[in-house]
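name: query_chain
kind: protein
chains: 1
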Amino acid sequence: MFLENQTWPKVKKYLEDSKMIIVPIGSIENEGKHLPLGLDTHLSIYLSEIISKKTGCMVGPSLPIGYSKWFMDFPGTITFKHDTLITIIKEYCDCLYEHGFRKFLFINP
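structure:
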């Protein structure tokens, strides 16, 4: 039950019964020579979907970029500065809070 696939009336109805949302947070970074750079993002979405199917909890859009400055020697890595990432997460949650979400479960493998 991904937020971006819902209509606003469905989200409003969901919030009548639940105030919780799962927030998948990933990264674009080195995971070895044999794994894709977006593995953490794929895993966070996958785990969020499993939890959602078992609990009925809504899943917010993934944040696919994290703080990975130590991997910048590996081509393809994308990183936010630590303060930037914190600001993005805060603003993301502020928007959801304004609409009535009160419980946030962050998934980051």
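note: The first helix runs from residue 8 to 17.
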